[in-house]
Amino acid sequence: MPFLVQTADAASRTLWALYPDYLEPEYKDLRVLALHAHNAGLIHTREKPVRTMEDMAGLRLRTPSVAIAMMLEQLGASPVGMPPTQVYENLQKGVLDGTVFAWDAVYVFKLYEVLGYHLDARAYTTSFFFVMNERRYRGLPDDVRAVVDELSGEPLVAQFAAGWDRWDEPGLKASKERGDPIISLSDEERARWREALEPVIDRYLSEVESKGVENAREIYTKAQEYVAQFENREPSRNLHGEGKDAARAVRQHGRGVDQAVGTAGDAASHRRGTGDHRRHTCAQARRLHLLRDHRRGAVAGPRGGLSRDSLRLCDPEPRGG
User: Fold this and answer.
1) How many CB atoms lie within 10 A of CB 142?
2) For the residues of 40-60, what is the DSSP string, one character each?
3) What is the pLDDT of residues 73-87, one digit of tens each?
4) What is the DSSP pairing of strand 42-45 with strand 117-120?
5) Is the pLDDT of residue 300 over 60?
6) Cα atoms in the Cβ-side hemisphere of radius 13 Å centred on 317
7) Can you give the residue range of the structural domain that contains 40?
8) Is there a domain that residue 295 lies in?
9) What is the mean pLDDT of residues 8-35?
């Protein structure tokens, strides 16, 4: 929804807080490992800078969703639905005047090569899910299922803030290196946009209600409450109030999905000294390796992680074979 949330941290925590009471029915037959969302997105344009609502008039902008299309149209732009892989070519040809994306897509699709201006409107975000098949989950051995439970849910959700910040950095850097202006909305202009978009929020909620989600407004109100709660707390602290050392400890030893998990206990082991840290690393290596032995085809997410060599380093004697 427009102007609901600004950071990946607050957005991801809000989604996870909403999940048990409101969102769980949407994931029938799936084990939800995490829900997350990117940092609030920008409006990127090719030739015309956007500083006010009036500057949006007539701009052909690629939109990622129905809700964002409604937002852009209300602001005077012409939303265009299009796969992200086609945006570069259509910007280059002048079919599009711009696009709405977070910074990560600007780098991944090399859009910095064909864009000239970036309005840090922080007007929207898009959510994602990280799931596995429920039947597959139930069929896992008890010890493997325990590993999934330990590494997913709140500990995993808590890592997405740092993840999205890291993924956004190359796109921002590339645009700065080209000398592109990065524009921010003034407080007065932001207030104008918010007021102009109130009818859009009401209309969108009415459409969702008409499709059977009778408590859509209740969910939206609850989301606003959670966002206010999470945006007012220190971003580096996870859902239990523990620090981000956990993510750092895991990132030193993993890649892919394994890079995204960690607990405060991991960080505590790291702080207690090399011996405890090594024991922690080895124990986590075995847990992650055990999980990978059973997860092929089960988890919707990137592959990767600690290698068998990491496990060998944990053994007092080399393994044979």
Assistant:
1) 6
2) PPEEEESS----SGGGGTT-E
3) 999 999 999 999 999
4) antiparallel
5) no
6) 2
7) 8-138+168-231
8) no
9) 95
Closest CA to 145 of 155, 161, 133: 133
Q: In this structure, what CATH number is given to the domain that contains residue 186?
A: 3.40.190.170
Average pLDDT over residues 291-297: 47
Question: Which pair of structure tokens corresponds to residue 184?
Answer: 């921010």
Look at residues 264, 258, 227, 229 and name the one whose alpha carbon lies nearest to residue 244. 264
243 within domain boundaries: no
Q: Are 255 and 276 in contact (CB under 8 A)?
A: no
Domain count, the chain: 1
Position 14 in a domain: yes
Is 121 inside a domain boundary?
A: yes
CA-atom Rg of the chain in angstroms: 22
Q: Report the C-alpha gap between 41 and 52 in whole angstroms.
A: 17
**What DSSP line would sit under 70-86, residue for residue?**
HHHHHTT-EEEE--GGG
- Are the C-beta atoms of residues 11 and 5 closer than 8 Å to each other? yes
pLDDT digits 0-9 by tens, 167-220: 999 999 999 999 999 999 998 999 999 999 999 999 999 999 999 999 999 999
Summarised one tens digit per residue, pLDDT across range 241-271 is 333 333 333 333 333 333 333 333 333 333 3
Decide: helix, strand or coil at residue 207. helix
Q: Between 280 and 183, whose confidence is greater?
A: 183
Residue showing tokens 């408590």:
215
